[in-house]
Each structure stands twice: as structure tokens, then as C-alpha cells.
Amino acid sequence: MEFESPITEIKGIGSKTEQRMNRIGVYTVGDILLHYPRDYITFREPVRPEEIQTEGIYAVLGKVTSPPILRRASRMELVQAKIGNTLKTVELVWFRAPYIRSRIKPGETYIFYGRVKQKGRQFGMEQPEIFTPEQYQEKQKTLQPVYGKTEGLSNQIIAKTIRQALKELPLSYDYLPDQIRRNAGLCEYNFAIHQVHFPETAEQLIEARKRLVFDEFFLFVLQIQLQKGKKSWIENDFPIETETVIPYIISHLPYRLTKAQKNCLDEIIADLKKGTAMQRLVQGDVGSGKTIVAFLSMALMGENGYQSALMAPTEVLARQHYENFTRMCEEFSLERKVILLTGSLTAREKRRAYENMQMYPDAMVIGTQALIQEKTAFYNLGLVITDEQHRFGVRQREILAEKGMHPHILVMSATPIPRTLAIILYGDMDISVIDEVPAKRLPNKNCVVGTSYRNTAYEFIRKEIKKGHQAYVICPFVEESEELEGENVTDYEKKLEEYYHGEIRIGCLNGKMKPAEKNRVMEAFTKNEIELLVSTTVVEVGVDVPNATVMMIENAERFGLAQLHQLRGRVGRGDAQSYCIMVDNLQSKESKRRLDILNHSNDGFFIAGEDLKLRGPGDFFGIRQSGELAFSIADIYQDAKALQQAAEAVKELLAEDPELEKEENQKLKRMVEKNLAKHMIL
User: Fold this and answer.
1) In sequence order, what are the residues at sequence separation of 6 or more whose Cβ sits closer than 8 angstroms to the Cβ of residue 612?
2) How far apart are CA 18 and CA 32, in angstroms?
3) For residue 474, which of 571, 398, 380, 344 has the smallest C-alpha distance?
4) How far apart are CA 583 and CA 421, in angstroms?
5) Are residues 341 and 367 in contact, defined by beta-carbon separation less than 8 angstroms?
6) 84 FRET partner, CA 20 to 30 A, in 12, 71, 320, 393?
7) pLDDT in tens, 228-254
8) Is the pLDDT of residue 416 over 90?
9) Pairwise CA distance, residues 419 & 427, whole Å
């Protein structure tokens, strides 16, 4: 068995399980090892049945009062048992597990671990794990991995598959040169990959994660630096000769551009006049006005007879850009063809789009990843823009650029990254920052509250919707988790339906939906056909809904500050006052201190800086990653020091061996050439 062997080589993985593994991005043995845990849980102190007051995840200590009963219901076998006393009992149920009867003996004391739910006055547990007190005591010393999964693929199956892979796979060679590993104080790779999945102690997990985070950053920065040398000499094949369209549009806008927007435009225009092709990042907070900068840049290219393309991460956002750009072309009397190309278009619509791309050499083309499909052919492509660029891998952006003959490259990011880190992450690009928000926009009013405030929040949402506005509720999970506590979209939508009794039109959105269904929901929300949208963080990269004025975020303590700031940026995009309600379920000193930063600031760059200061080596427990650049395990805020350390190591390595020709760097060179770090968006 090899790192690149198909996942079916692992014992017990048949065709059905293989298909489910494919749905979470696992195709090879190496893929399953790089499917890192999303969280870890510790087994909590046991409680007795009479101590349970609310639903949640518990370890329940009790004596089985009578022999387990086997029943048959709806073509399914189930085993029932009870623990407790006259004060309170907990009913236990296992489905399709008749063998449980032989595992549980009446009169014996066990600990049952799982989610407790209330049914009327009765509490019950479904599919709990069973331990003797001695077994549970040993479990309490360990950290249990929690993986991202899909329907039909349990946490237990994923963990079992990983154990099998680690057992059968030969030890991997350590590609990092010894000197780099020693200087950075890193553990060996094989130790790291074992401990990140099945840590023996919290300290060993921290050491393992430190190594794997360094690996991701090191390979990413190395790839960027190797590309930088190739790009720096690219000749400008699309020079700008006339530039009357930008001042004309600016003079007819119904608002004034901010100083930051004007400075950014000046830098872009200067780049387009240079002898080499532009490679520029436009970094601006949510709502800072990056879209008009993109439109003006594309209009300038069209004035000079060149095509331009803008790639958005979602179909809904691409369509919104298309509609806005078409409207502006009409308003400013620009004789410019705007073309839409997305995956959901019919074959006839796509064919018409391809024809228009050949007929109009100065067209603006807006689309999704359909722009980089093999059939898509541009004519005279002079500028490529990627919007919300952290949703695209480096290679995806390159494929789009390769559709033209060395076009200018402009990437846009709404995540405010401290400049020191941005220089490392975008080492092959010049950076423009739009750090002002248009004057007409009112800053969000923020509050951090406990769970007891929920009904007050629901009533506030009702009042805003009665005024004709809309609202979001964000949950960390798609559906109930057997391992982690936190609100989920599926149950929360039902809860709100019951609360509002049909008065409010409620919709649901999550990342597991098919693209067409996501588009349908977001379009309905955009048109105010849905008044309250219950969603996961999939709306973090979304469309402008200026009518939305309330953002309520459940389990706010589970998110990084940068991501929370991104989420609340979905409201406050119109003229009305907007509000962000962050529900802190933990209400610990640490979570209050973190969330208080957001409570008192709407400045994304300040928040990003504070995020860096607050993160420590163990803070990844229970805190969702920012999502920036889609690293598998690393987080640019939490692991800022590791990013800087990796960048310094790359600098020293390439100073001594620019082409990685030395014998001690051959393993590393093969790693880069074979692109084994595919989870690191290379």
C-alpha cells in the first residue's frame, strides 16, 4: 500500500463506502490521512440520571434496572433498556444492534455516552456508547478526533479507516531537510500524522499540529516563491493607450469614490501602463467598494479593445455581478457586451455565450469556475479578476490566466489580513488596500449575549421584518452532531417555524446542498421571497442583500474573529441601520474577551490584528478556522508566527539553493514536482 493507492486498498472499504469517501474529497490512502480532525472532544465527568436537567451530550452513570428488550418496528430491530431510579430514568435505544443485549447485564453499572434528548417528561439516549467505569476512566485521559463527514459515513468509520491506513502504510520519509526541522523545533512527520489523528496527550497534539501547520505554510510559500521568479519578467501584451472612460464614469456616479478607492485605481492604471503584466491583490474590508474598482478596470480594458473576465465563487454572486455590470453599462452609455457563463446555463445558453466571446473582442465576461472549463475559449483576454479570491486555489487562478496570452491579473479579497502576513501569502503580487468604507454606510450595532437572550432576539427580528427588512441566523453545523454541541441549521429552522407560527417566510441554506438548490434559495432571499434565512457560514461569501438588517450568530464562540467579522458584513449594505447579535453559549472569560473586540469595533484590519494577539498554541480547540486560503489545518491568524517562520525558512533555503538541486533537497523537490500537497491548494 502506498500514499497514492486507491482508498479501496484499505480493508473494509467497498464501493458504497468509497463513493461516500469521494464526497468528502477522499480518493486515496493519502487523502484519508490528510482528512484532519475538525475538532477534538474530551470525555466529560459522568452524571447520574437525576442530575440531567437539559438536553445535551452526557456521560450517564447508572445501573441497568432490567434485562434489555429486543423489539421490531418498521422492519427494524431495536434494543431498549433503562437506567435510573424512582426519581428519574433514562431510556436507552440502539437500532439494528441486537448484539447489545449480550453486552448489558441487569444489575451492573455502566457509563453510557451520547446525546440526551427529551421526549415529554422522559429523557432518552439513542445509540449511546457503552463503557464500564474502568474503561471510561481510561477514555477520559484521551482526546477523541471529530471529523467532517457525510451521510452514511460516521465518525467511527472514518477513524477506523485512518487507524487501518496508519497501520498498513509504510513509514513515510521526512521530506523536510534536517536543518530546517531542527531550526524550527519540529517533530518528525510520522509522529505528527499519528498524533494529529489519535493524540495521546494535548501536548503531543500541539506538537503534531505545529509540524503539519508548518508543512502547509512552507510548501505554499515555496510554491509562491518559485512561481514569482517565472512571473516577474512577463511582458505587458495589453498596454493601455486611452483612459477617458474612468473619469467619465466617476463623474456620473451617484456617489463619490473614497480616497482609498481612488488610490487603488491609480495603482491599477499605473500597472496597466508598465512594461510588465500586472500581478496585483486588492484587499478591502466587506463593503469597502471593491466591485466598482473591478468594473472600472474592466471598462478601461474594453475601451482599449481588450476582453476582461471576472470569476466569482458562486453562481448567485456571478449573476449579481452580471446584472449590475449590465445595468451600469446601460446607465453610462457604454457600448460593451457583458457575457454571463455559469455551470447552470443550458447547453444553448452556453453555446451563445461562447459565440459572443468570439464576436466581441472587448467584452466583459462574468462567470464561475465554468470560465476555466476546457471548452471555454476567450478572444483577446487582457485582464483576469478573481473575486473573493480565497475561495479559489492558486492553480484555478492560473488556469483562468492561461486562457489568455499572459493577461493582467487582479485578485480581490474581502478578508482583512495584516500587511505583514499579506506580503508573505501574496509574495508574487503587489498589494493595494481599500481601508475606508463609503460615508453613507452606517456602522453595524453589535451586541454579545447569552442564550437567555434568544427570545428577545427573535422578537427584535420580528420587528425588523415587519418594517420590511430581512435577517440571517447563522449556525455552526448543518445537522445535529453526536460528537459536538452547537446549534444546527436543520433543527433551528424547525424551531423558528414553530416560534413564528408561519408569520415569517423562513428559508434554509447549507454547504451540503446542490449548487442549483443553493442558487434557488439565495435568489429567493435576494428577492425578499424569504424573509429570514437560517444558514451555515456558506453565506460568508454571498451576494449583496441591502434589505437585510439583522445578523444573529449562534455559538459565536466557535468562530474565529475574522470569520465573525466576515459574516456580519452580510448586513449593513443598505441605507438602514443594521445589527449583529452574537450568541455566546460558553460565556467563559476567554470567549467574552474575544467577542468583546467585535462588540466594540467594525474595523476589519484592527480586528485581524487583535485576532493575531489573542491566539495561542492550544486555541484551536473548538474555534472554527477563518477559511482564508482554504488550508487543511493551518489558520493564518491563529498560526501567524508559524507562517512567518515558514516564510523565513523558504527564504534561507532558496538563497542557498534556488533550483533545489542539492542532494539534501531532492525529496523536497520531488514533493513540489509531484504536487503531493494537493490539499494545500497548490
Assistant:
1) 418, 637, 640
2) 11
3) 571
4) 30
5) yes
6) 71
7) 666 556 788 898 999 999 999 999 998
8) no
9) 11
Phi, psi of 405 (to 5 degrees): -95, 85
Neighbours of 314 (CB within 10 A): 22
Task: Please give the Cα distance from 35 to 165 (Å, whole number).
Answer: 12
Reading phi first (left if > 0) and then psi (alpha if -120 to 50, else beta), residue 44 is in beta
Choose among 569, 562, 539, 555: nearest CA to 629: 562
Band (650; pLDDT cuts 50, 70, 90): very high
pLDDT digits (tens, 9 = 90+) for 258-270: 999 999 999 999 9
C-alpha cell at position 309: 473576465
Chain Cα centroid distance, residue 143: 24
Q: What b/e sequence results for 253-265 when a residue is b if at least 16 CB atoms lie within 10 Å of its CB, and e otherwise?
A: eeeebbebbebbb
Question: Do the beta carbons of residue 412 and residue 388 sit within 8 Å?
Answer: yes
C-alpha cell at 221: 510559500
Cell of 185: 523545533
**Coil, strand, or helix at residue 679?**
helix
In contact, 67 and 42? CB cutoff 8 Å: no
Alpha-carbon distances, residue 135 vs 47, 49, 58, 140, 575 (angstroms)? 16, 20, 16, 9, 60
User: Is a pLDDT exceeding 80 seen at residue 359?
Assistant: yes
Give the C-alpha distances (Å, rounded to integers) separating 636 from 192, 521, 675. Answer: 20, 31, 22
User: Considering the entire predicted model, what is its pTM?
Assistant: 0.75
**In this structure, what C-alpha cell is assigned to residue 55?**
438536553
Give residue-wise pLDDT tens across range 588-611: 888 888 888 888 888 877 887 777
Q: Of 627, 626, 617, 624, which is closest to residue 39 (Cα–Cα)? A: 624
Cell of 431: 498589494
Contact assessment for residue 92 and residue 124, using Cβ atoms and an 8 Å cutoff: yes
Confidence category of residue 198, pLDDT binned at 50, 70, 90: very high
**Residue found by looking up cell 469597502 in the block:** 288
CB atoms within 10 A of CB 54: 8
pLDDT at site 392 = 47
